[in-house]
Specification:
There is one protein chain. The protein is mostly helical. The protein has one domain. The protein contains three helices and no strands. Helix 1 packs antiparallel against helix 2 and helix 2 runs antiparallel to helix 3. The longest helix is centred in the C-terminal third of the chain and has 16 residues. The termini are far apart. The mean pLDDT is about 95.
Length: about 60
């Protein structure tokens, strides 16, 4: 029996945010880091999202 594939919202938003940040679109990256934060389950991931969001907002 095949394992049901699940969609990882945290990874989806974190990857999109990182790509926007790399391309210099900091405003959009900040929004996406905020979305990733909502889906982060680990404390370390939450802190990372907050740090990246704050960095992008400061740009």
């Amino acid at each position: 029996m095949k394992k049901k594939q699940t969609f990882d919202c945290y990874s989806h938003y974190a990857n999109k945010a990182a790509n926007k940040e790399r391309s210099g679109n900091y405003a959009e990256a900040a929004k996406l880091w905020g979305c990733a934060l909502l889906f982060a389950s680990l404390e370390a991931s939450k802190k990372w999202c907050e740090a990246r969001r704050d960095f992008c907002l400061a740009k």
